[in-house]
Design a protein that fits this description.
The complex is a heterodimer.
Chain A: H1 6-17, H2 22-29, E1 32-34, H3 63-72, E2 79-83, H4 87-92, E3 114-115, H5 120-125, H6 128-141, E4 148-152, H7 154-159, H8 163-174, E5 178-181, H9 191-205, E6 222-228, H10 234-244, E7 248-254, H11 259-264, E8 270-273, H12 276-290, E9 294-296, H13 302-313, H14 318-346, E10 350-353, H15 359-362, H16 364-369, E11 373-379, H17 384-391, E12 399-402, H18 406-416, E13 420-423, H19 425-433, E14 438-440, H20 452-467, H21 485-492
Parallel strand pairs in A: 2-3, 2-4, 4-5, 6-7, 6-8, 8-9, 10-11, 10-13, 11-12, 13-14
Antiparallel strand pairs in A: 1-12
Helix pairs in contact in A: 1-18, 3-9, 6-8, 9-12, 10-20, 13-14, 14-20
Chain B: E1 3-8, E2 14-18, E3 23-33, E4 38-44, E5 49-55, E6 63-66, E7 68-71
Antiparallel strand pairs in B: 1-2, 1-6, 2-3, 3-4, 4-5, 5-7
The chains are: A alpha/beta, B mainly beta.
């Protein structure tokens, strides 16, 4: 199908909105837009970070998911207590595939679930005593932990437990950082506020721990990788590139990260932000307090990688700039071969994306490197500064949808007929049953890494594997295809 | 009275950021911008205006200051 014109896309949005009651239609209309590259600011065309309409199928998560699942969870040598009933922690345990090095249960705890398992009596009488007790138990059972974070679930805020007081007391008793995080799920409209709360908790309870301590030897090339959660090994694929160009990566936030690395981050010379949405708060704080500049970068696809490496190198001296060129030249044969192999198989295919807070714009470059076109994109929990950054990445007259509902997404797909959809697990089986190839783009569909040059090869292979899988030709039952004799008979009758 | 984070970008222009509103905008002009006085009315590139209590000298950017919103520019 040929690309839609601006008018057709607008008509499509109107058509999809028609089924809603008037009020809901008015609200949802603000969240759907046709991209117009001439706009400088997204607030002219789209509203974001607003409460979802009751009754629609939203794909968002909660503040607890943003804090425990995204920001704090991957810090591998801390124990993160899901404070409240058992379900929130148990059903989200280990699903995000934040890889790490270490012995789980001994010195790292990434895939384990720690919970205070609230019962009725804890709700009635408060859970502070229980919390104090389990922290001592943790110290006994897992003595190699480097700290504890308390991730509040909804009831903690509802019953008003004073977890800060418990944390301060425990901190004195066990002599390790104990961080209370007020990330109750009901706060905010999506996981986005959870990221902010988690960032603020790091700011208040972790970042200052080594202020005034200059024992850590620094170099002029110290950087921190912020907002890379090492999904399927992403941060490792990124880190090698930075190290090859001559930089020293002091900290990884927070995939495969440790609390010691986070405490050392204020000593670096530059913060590199991959996921802007979830970690810009702490980068801005460090900029103000420690005068550490920060830049955003994008390690998806060779074009964007080269662009980002040069952008990073420009902030350092000639050795790093030469290093960046060397890295780009070194991998050129490798990524040229990947493009030569997969581009003919993927050329001209159209993709629709609907992911979280960074990939809806970051992966566009990687698809374009493979000759594919992104015809629709949207954020679950992006803010307007994310959409500002998206407008230029997307083609004119393409669809942009914020907090898209299950119904709208399905209707858009039926009309736009993309060749591939990239979204989350809840969408995966719906679209596969509709006969459309699908990649789960939150945790790379059990694959990865996708960052860096090494990741690009895997990305290209996965897209080809999914799109050109022969199974898609078998989706229509043989008696329903045009060549089937039954259909011919029925047509002649 | 939003808290505004101010910093200089690579071109030396003042960048205006209001966290609560996700507003990230370049300042077009600052009323008082000399070595001994800074503040007053700040005009942003989207047309909105904010007012800062004048300070005795340039603040140490990046910095967070309180501003008063004068005109939305719409």
């Amino acid at each position: 199908m040929a690309a839609l014109t601006k008018e057709e896309t607008e008509a499509l949005i109107q058509e999809v909105l028609e089924v809603y009651p008037e009020q809901a239609r008015k609200d949802r209309a603000k969240h759907l837009a046709v991209n117009d590259q001439s706009l400088e600011k997204s607030n002219k065309c789209i509203t974001s970070n607003r409460k979802s309409q009751p009754g629609v199928m939203t794909i968002r998560g909660c503040a607890y998911a943003g804090s425990k699942g995204v920001v704090w969870g991957p810090i591998k040598d801390m124990i993160h207590i899901s404070h409240g009933p058992v379900g929130c922690g148990q059903y989200s345990r280990a699903g995000r595939r934040n890889y790490y090095v270490g012995t789980t249960g001994v010195n790292t705890f990434g895939t384990m679930n720690f919970t205070s398992d609230f019962q009725e009596k804890d709700i009635v009488f408060g859970g502070d005593k229980k919390l104090a007790k389990i922290m001592l138990e943790i110290e006994q059972l897992f003595p190699l932990n480097k700290g504890i974070s308390i991730q509040s679930e909804c009831p903690i805020g509802l019953i008003g437990d004073d977890i800060e007081a418990v944390a301060k007391k425990a901190n004195k008793e066990i002599g390790k950082p104990v961080v209370p995080v007020r990330c109750e799920g009901f706060r905010g409209v999506s996981q986005s506020l959870g990221h902010h709360i988690a960032n603020d908790a790091i700011r208040d309870w972790v970042l200052e721990n080594r202020d005034g301590d200059d024992s850590f030897p620094t170099t002029p090339y110290d950087v921190a990788v912020i907002g890379d959660y090492n999904i399927g090994g992403d941060a490792w694929a990124s880190r090698t590139l930075l190290e090859e160009m001559g930089l020293r990566v002091v900290a990884q936030w927070s995939g495969d990260g440790t609390i010691a690395e986070m405490e050392k981050t204020p000593k670096v010379k530059l913060n590199l932000i991959h996921c802007y949405r979830s970690m810009n708060y702490i980068a801005r704080h460090m900029e103000e307090k420690y005068k550490i500049p920060w830049i955003e970068y994008n390690f998806f696809g060779p074009t964007k990688i080269a662009e980002s490496l040069r952008k990073i190198a420009a902030l350092f001296d000639e050795t790093i700039q030469a290093g960046a060129e060397k890295v780009i030249a070194k991998y050129q044969a490798e990524y040229d071969a990947v493009i030569a192999k997969y581009k003919p198989r993927l050329q001209g295919k159209r993709v629709m994306l609907y992911v979280g807070g960074l990939r809806p714009r970051h992966v566009i470059g990687a698809y374009e490197d493979l000759g594919m076109e992104v015809v629709g994109t949207g954020y679950e929990f992006g803010h307007n500064d994310d959409y500002d950054r998206t407008i230029k990445e997307m083609g004119n007259a393409t669809l942009i949808y914020d907090d898209v509902t299950g119904y709208e997404f399905e209707e858009f797909v039926k009309k736009v007929k993309p060749d591939l959809i990239g979204s989350g697990i809840k969408e995966k089986y719906i679209f596969q049953k509709m006969g459309i190839p699908f990649r789960q783009m939150h945790s790379w569909d059990y694959s990865g890494p996708y960052h860096g040059y090494d990741g690009f090869a895997i990305f290209a292979r996965d897209m080809d594997m999914t799109l050109n899988n022969p199974c898609w030709k078998q989706v229509t039952a043989p008696w329903k295809t045009a060549e089937s004799p039954d259909v011919a008979v029925a047509a002649s009758a | 009275m939003p808290s505004v984070m101010l910093k200089k970008n690579a071109e030396g222009k003042l960048v205006f950021y209001v966290p609560k509103k996700d507003l990230e905008e370049v300042a077009e002009s600052v009323e008082f911008d000399s070595s001994d006085k800074w503040g007053g009315e700040v005009l942003l590139s989207d047309g909105s205006k904010y007012y800062f209590e004048p300070l005795d000298g340039q603040p140490d950017f990046p910095v967070t200051l309180r501003a008063k919103r004068l005109d939305s520019g719409e």
